[in-house]
Write a structure and sequence with these properties.
By secondary structure, the protein is mainly alpha-helical. The longest helix is centred in the C-terminal third of the chain and has 39 residues. Helix 1 runs antiparallel to helix 2. It contains 2 helices and no strands.
Length: about 80
């Protein structure tokens, strides 16, 4: 049971991180959309690359959370 509790805690932590990553991605995309004609080109490029990095990080976290969820359900089936 302690392994299952640890997996649930890990999932909660990754869900929190996923929320922060997605919120930051949305904020960056919104900033780019509203400032693309006012800001300097280098700033737009940096914001775009950062948004791309956060999108990749969101995909990575999603994959990690799915793996943990699958492991939780696998371990739950073993206990019943």
């Amino acid at each position: 049971m302690p392994k299952l509790d640890g997996l649930k805690e890990d999932l909660g932590y990754f869900k929190f991180c996923f929320g922060i990553v997605v919120a930051t991605f949305i904020a960056l995309v919104g900033w780019i959309a509203t400032n693309y004609n006012k800001a300097e080109l280098w700033l737009i490029i940096v914001a775009f690359l950062t948004a791309l990095l956060f999108a990749i990080l969101a995909l990575f976290l999603n994959r990690k959370m799915r793996k943990i969820i699958k492991e939780i359900y696998t371990n739950k089936g073993d206990k019943q």
